[in-house]
Predict the structure.
Amino acid sequence: MAFISDFAPTRRLADLVADIAPARRGFDPLGIAAGMRAYRIYSTLDAKSDAELAELGLARTDAPRVAAGMAFGEQAA
């Protein structure tokens, strides 16, 4: 079983996420901003076809894990 930290996004995926949900660093004690960012990332990935996800190196079942990992700071540079 893979964990969130086991995922290293491709450069193309990182660029996609930066375009749709740019990271905002700052005070977010309840995680509301990060949660909204995760939702935007997941919604975008979920709207893509299986072929488009495969081009990003993802399977449809990876979308929730990837969205949470990238939104909550597990994103690789």
Observations:
- Confidence is low (pLDDT under 50) at residues 1-5.
- Residues 7-71 form one domain.
